[in-house]
Amino acid sequence: MTVSESMSRLRAQREALVEAALEHVPFDGWSKQALIAGAEDLDLAPGEIDRLLPKGTGQAIVTYVEMTDRKMVDALDALELDQMKIRERIAVAVKTRLDLVENHKDAVRAAVAWTALPQNVAKGLKLTHGTVDKMWIAAGDTSTDHNWYTKRMLLAGVYGSTLAYWLDDTSEGHSDSWAFLDRRIGNVMQIPKITGKISKAGQFAAAPLKLGAKLARCMPTPGRVRRQFGG
């Protein structure tokens, strides 16, 4: 087996464990207990958790975000985005990303709260950057100058604020979230035209961090939900 094949196999096994743990995150949060329960579902020995996720629950969250990003890219590649206006491409990208995690809102909420912890802020920003960068690439962005940074900063704000709205949205088909998304895109598309600066972009980009800080204060401790439900 080549090194590449070995790495691919390791990634597949790691992602399988994270997928299994997802079913337990609503009760235990992103915790070692959730990973143990996921491993049990897959009939994995307890030692396999440390082999597949040597950096613990943080690595599990990073894996979850990155594999969802990859699914998003695959889904977007299957669409004819080049036939759409840039505004529509971005809207479709954000909708696609959120649709992929529709059944795991609790896991997303817990992951966002984790990224807001002081020691994880840098990782959270990196993950958000990775997500929005993939969205822009899928949308056909080829910029290489300062616009490259501005676009990603603005989209980070759009994505983060829409994510915050979406997490609590109970409207049918998340229609309220998509209306909110359209308004946010409309707002940020005017920023470069009005100011030519990115100071306002920084305010938008702060949205994911503000959301994470709020969720971090509200998140239950691991196991609390399980006790509440008698698990």
TrEMBL record:
Organism listed in the record: Thalassospira lohafexi
Record-level Gene Ontology MF annotations: lipid binding
Protein name per Swiss-Prot or TrEMBL: COQ9 family protein
Family the UniProt entry places it in: Belongs to the COQ9 family.
Entries under Gene3D superfamilies matching the protein: Tetracycline Repressor, domain 2
Pathway: Cofactor biosynthesis; ubiquinone biosynthesis
GO biological process: ubiquinone biosynthetic process
Residues in COQ9 C-terminal domain copies: 122-191
PANTHER family: UBIQUINONE BIOSYNTHESIS PROTEIN COQ9, MITOCHONDRIAL
The organism's place on the tree of life at top rank: Bacteria
Lineage: Bacteria, Pseudomonadati, Pseudomonadota, Alphaproteobacteria, Rhodospirillales
Keyword Glycoprotein: no
Keywords for this protein: Lipid-binding, Transit peptide, Ubiquinone biosynthesis
Job of this protein: Membrane-associated protein that warps the membrane surface to access and bind aromatic isoprenes with high specificity, including ubiquinone (CoQ) isoprene intermediates and presents them directly to COQ7, therefore facilitating the COQ7-mediated hydroxylase step. Participates in the biosynthesis of coenzyme Q, also named ubiquinone, an essential lipid-soluble electron transporter for aerobic cellular respiration.
